[in-house]
Amino acid sequence: MAEPGEIVRSGATAGGGRELSVRVPGDKSITQRALVLGALAEGESRIGGALRGADPLATGRALAALGVQITGLEGSADDDLRIRGRGLRGWRQPNAVLDLGNSGTGARLLAGALAPQPLDAVLAGDKSLSARPMERIAAPLRRMGAGIEYPELPGRLPMRIGGAPLTPLRHESAVSSAQVKGAVLLAGVGAEVAVEVSEPRRSRDHSERMLESMGVEVVERAVAGRWSVRVPAPPPRLAPLDMRVPGDFSSAAFLLVWAALAGGRDALTVRAVGLNGTRTGLLSVLARMGVAVEVVPRETAGGEPVGDLRVDALAGPPQAVEVGGDEIPAMIDEVPVLAVLAARAEGVTRIAGARELRVKESDRLAALAVTLRRIGVAVEELPDGLEIEGTRDRLSGVAECFRDHRIAMAFGVLGATPGCDVRVDDPGTSDVSFPGFWKLLASLRRRSETARGGRAAAANSGSAPEGDGAAPGRGCLVVAIDGSAGSGKSTTAAAVAARLGFRHLDSGAIYRAVTLGLLEVRPGDAAPHRVTPAELAALAIDLKWLGGRAEVWALGDRIRDEDLRSERVTALVSRVSAIPAVRACLLDLQRSAAAGPGLVAEGRDMGSVVFPKAEVKVYLDADPRERARRRILQRGTRSPGPAEIETEAARLGRRDERDSSRSVAPMRRAEDAVVIDTTGLDPAEQIDRIVRLARDARRASR
Ligand code: S3P
Question: Cα–Cα–Cα angle for 123, 211, 118, nearest 5°?
C-alpha cells in the first residue's frame, strides 16, 4: 500500500495520459476525536492511519499532561496509535498550562471533556487560536455547571476550566459548528448527564459516529428547520476504539483542485479518503463548475464511509458558481481552495453565508480577498462571503497566508498550475493538517510538466498561460467620480473602493493639505491667491498608501483628518484650489495614485483633467436642498430647519459656481461621464451601480 504522499502510476487514461494515484494523511477531525475519546474510554484504543500533524500532536501532548498514556503519536504514519484511556473522569491534575498550539478542535473538545472532571486546567494556544471565540463553548458548559474564566481577555484563550459535576442541558447553538456540538456532547457523556445540541445546519458528525461505536446512544433528527443531536442516557463507561482513520477529504480537496487546473491529460486518484457526507459538500460545487470527480466507494472505517476520488484535468476553464449558506457547513474548510479555483473560472463566483470563515485559523474571507487581489485577481469581500472574478491572466506575487494552513495550501495549489508564478510566504503552516504537502505537490507538478513537454514550465517562467494568446494587460482600472458638493461623492467613493479592493483617492484632501500648508508657512496671509511652484514644492505634499487608503503628508508630517477638515481650511480650500499653479503641481501626485488593481478617484476634475482616460467616469448630482441637508447632517446637526437648509444651499451654490468658473480645470462633467442623480437614491443602490460599471469595464478591458 502506498504511503501518504507517495505517487503511484497505475496505467493509462483513455486520452493517452497517465493514471496517477496518491494518498493523503489521516483525517484531522477524526484523529483529534480519537485522541480525546480514546483518553476517556476504559482500556486501550488502537488507531491506525492517524494524522501526525501539528494539531493532533498538540492535543496528544495536552492529554499526556493530563496523565493519559499515548504511544505512536510522534512515530511514523504507519504505526498505530495506542491510547490508554483513564475513564470518563479519571484524568490527572495537570501541573502546567495545556498549550493547544493552533488547534481549535483540540481546545474546544478538551474544554468539553474537562468540564466534568474534578480538575482545574488552563487551556492556551498560539496567537491565531488566542484570537478565536471561545464563549460559544464556554457559555453552554457554564450553564451545565462548569467554572470557566478567562484570565486575560474575555472570550479568548487562555481559559481556566474548573471541572464540576454537571447538570443536563439542551443547547441551541447560534452557529453550525462541530466543535461546539462536540464540546457539549463530550461534557454530557463525561458527566453522564443527558444533553441535546441543536444547530442551524448539520455540521460534521464525527463525534456522533465515534460515540456510537463506543456504545453511546445518539439520536439525531431535523427539528423545526434545525439539526438536533441528543445523547439521552450516556453510559458509565466508553468502550475503547479500534479503528483506521480515513484520508482527510479536506486535504484531498487541494489535490483535486490542483489536478483539475494542471492541464495535460493525466488523471489523479486520491485513495482511501473519508467520504462522510457532512464533509464532502465541495463535490457538488465542483460538479457545477464542470470539474467531475468520480467517487469510488470502498469500505467503511470506524463508522466512516471511505472511497477513492478520481479527477481528470480540465480541458478549458471551470465555470463560475454560486454557493449559498446551506452548502457551507459541509465544505467549511474547502472555501479557500474553492476560491483559488474560482480565480481561474469563467465568470464571477459568489460565495455567501460563510461568515464563520472569519473566525477560523485566520479571517479567511479577508485573507483570501487580500491575497487574491495581491496576485492580480479581482475580488469583492462581502460581510459573509466573496465575489471572485475569474481570470486567465497570468497571476504572480507572494501570497500572504496569515499563518493559516489552508490559505497557504490553497495558494500553493494555484502557484503549481500553469500561468501562475505565486509563492507562499509561510509554507511551514501546512504541517498543521498535511505534513508532506509541498513535497507531494512539487512531485505531482514535476510529473505533469514533463508530461506536457515543458509547456507548463515555459508558462511558469514568464510566458502567458496556455490558450491565452493575449498579453496579460493588468493595468490599473480607474473609476473617476466627480460631482457637486454634498452629492455623496466621498462616502460613495470610499465604499466602492472598499468593495472592489481598489485604492481610494480623495483629491479634496490634497487641496486641503495645500491650504493648511500655506496657512502654516504664511501665517500673516489670510487669503492666499498666488503661490509659486517653488513654494508649493517646499510644502512637500505627499500620499503614503496603507492598503487602499492614503495618509496625507505635508511639510514632513502626517496630517490628521480633523486638521484637514477644520473650519479655517474649509473656508479657504475652494480659493486655493482655483490657483493654476496649485492644480498643476498636484497633477502628478494624483496620477501616481493609479497603481495596483484599481483606483477610485473622487473630486471635481477627475474624469475631465486628471484621468481623462479613466475607464469609468461618474458624475454625481443631487437637488441643492438635499445636498445642503446632507452637509448639515454631516456636521452633526440632528434635523435642520428650512432656513438653515436655504442658507447652506446658497453657500454650496456659491462654491460650485466658483469651482465651475475657475480658469484652470473648472468643475464640469466629462462628456462621457454617467450622471447619477442621488436625490432619492439609497446609498447602497448608488454604490452597486458604480461597482457594476467598474466590473463591466474590467471585463471589457480583458
Ligand atoms: C472541525 C470543525 C470545523 C472545521 C475545523 C475542524 C472539527 O469547525 O472548520 O477545521 O474537527 O470539529 P467548526 O465546527 O467550528 O465550524
Answer: 40
Nearest CA to ligand 1 atom 4: 333
Please calculate the CA angle 596-597-603 and round it to the nearest 5 degrees.
85
What pTM was computed for the model?
Answer: 0.73
The dihedral region occupied by 462, where left means phi > 0, alpha psi between -120 and 50, and beta the remainder, is: left
Pocket test for ligand 1, best of 128, 177, 207, 279 (most atoms within 8 A of CB): 177
b/e code 617-635 from CB counts within 10 Å (16+ = b): bbbbbbebbbbbbbbbeee
Burial level of 331, CB count in 10 A (0-12/13-18/19+)?
A: buried
pLDDT tens, 397-428? 999 999 999 999 999 999 999 999 999 999 99
Question: Under a CB-based contact definition with an 8 Å cutoff, are residues 616 and 479 in contact?
Answer: yes
Q: Whose CA is nearest to atom 2 of ligand 1?
A: 178
Reduced to 3 states, what is the DSSP secondary structure of residue 127? Answer: coil
Which residues touch 279 (CB under 8 Å, ≥6 apart)? 204, 249, 250, 330, 331
Q: Which of 552, 567, 546 is nearest to 517 (CA)?
A: 552
Strand partners of residue 229: 197, 220
The C-alpha atoms of residue 344 and residue 513 are separated, in whole angstroms, by 43
Distance separating alpha carbons of residues 685 and 691, to the nearest angstrom: 10
| pLDDT tens digits, one per residue of 348-402 | 999 999 999 999 999 999 999 999 999 999 999 999 999 999 999 999 999 999 9
Q: How many helices and strands (H and E) does the chain possess?
A: 22, 31
